DNA sequence: CAATGTTATATATCAAGTTATAGACTTATG
DNA sequence: CATAAGTCTATAACTTGATATATAACATTG
């Protein structure tokens, strides 16, 4: 069966990148599920942002993640519910709400940085290894490789190779 | 403000590709809005699939687009509502419902192929022109270029260059 | 050939993004 | 200094993807 998005090339590049991104996220989720993590893969970037940049107001968090503010408001509400982040009003400006990692969130991030993220990063790096040339060709190669060996298998192998 | 997804590299490649895809779709939508098209940019791949492959049952349509079947069922219902596709039960197998372009759908696709898609394709090709090297670098270049000159501006220019 | 299993589609629910807008607070100005 | 304008966050409504499951039609088999 012809892959129409691939055939259409640049015309549907947006749909195609979205599709690849979704598959990567879903595969990553599988890896996390096996490790008994209780949050969605899509929440990690927010936690990583707080880890890298320290406490941030909602708007700057959205900007640093490159998403719209309401999405961050919702994610923050969810993570606060789980006890992974804390939200405090800013002292200088009562409109701003400063988001920071809670103790549990700190622990989760530290564990992820040590035990989980390296494996995922290696798996994705493996997936993209030795790619070069035009973008569309690289995307096709990624799709083919993912179909041949899903990410969670690569994560296992990668973990063996990089202890 | 640091772009966290970019800093995290392979670890968040899925989120990042999704983000780029969404921006491309949104920008494409802007181009279409200006041209008074009444459907969403995300529906075009389905119409293009029917155009390329002819009438197809729902499942094969999903497969050719690389998305899950319920998404196609929903899109088809929407496009049928708009009168752009028709759905008929298969004769051999009463479970299958064959989707095809209606007369209006045919006309829309023909018009799009003639007047609209080339401009979009050129704009995206322009966006990706002269890219080479590692994937992450190309993605960063695309993000930078999109930020500098949004797609709808490129579409205008591309149309002038390629009559 | 009835019962069981399989397949195709529809439906329900969820997730995570979007835009538009409202409400609270801050800043600027006449 | 009161009011107007602006900024920050939350909420509502929508989009578009996903998975899980129900239903209906077909296929197989004891």
Automatic annotation (TrEMBL), chains A, B:
Q: Which GO terms describe its molecular function?
A: DNA-binding transcription factor activity
Biological process (GO), any one:
response to stress
- Family annotation (PROSITE patterns): HTH_MARR_2
- HTH marR-type domain mapped to chain residues: 1-148
Q: Which domain of life is it from?
A: Bacteria
What the entry lists under InterPro entries is as follows: ArsR-like_HTH (IPR011991), HTH_MarR-typ (IPR000835), MarR/SlyA-like (IPR039422), WH-like_DNA-bd_sf (IPR036388), WH_DNA-bd_sf (IPR036390)
The residues forming the signal peptide are: none
| PANTHER family the record matches | MARR FAMILY REGULATORY PROTEIN, TRANSCRIPTIONAL REGULATOR, MARR FAMILY
Protein name as it appears in the record:
MarR family transcriptional regulator
């Amino acid at each position: 069966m012809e892959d129409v998005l691939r055939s259409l090339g640049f015309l549907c590049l947006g749909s195609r990148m979205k599709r690849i991104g979704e598959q990567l996220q879903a595969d990553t989720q599988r890896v996390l599920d096996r490790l008994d993590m209780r949050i969605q893969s899509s929440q990690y970037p927010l936690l990583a942002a707080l880890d890298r940049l320290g406490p941030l107001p909602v708007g700057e968090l959205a900007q640093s993640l490159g998403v719209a503010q309401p999405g961050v408001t919702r994610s923050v509400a969810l993570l606060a519910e789980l006890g992974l982040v804390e939200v405090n009003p800013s002292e200088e400006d009562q409109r701003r709400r400063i988001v920071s990692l809670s103790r549990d969130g700190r622990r989760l991030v530290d564990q992820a940085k040590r035990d989980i993220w390296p494996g995922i990063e290696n798996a994705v790096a493996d997936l993209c290894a030795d790619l070069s040339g035009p973008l569309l060709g690289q995307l096709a190669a990624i799709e083919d490789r993912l179909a041949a060996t899903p990410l969670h298998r690569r994560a296992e192998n990668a973990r063996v190779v990089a202890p």
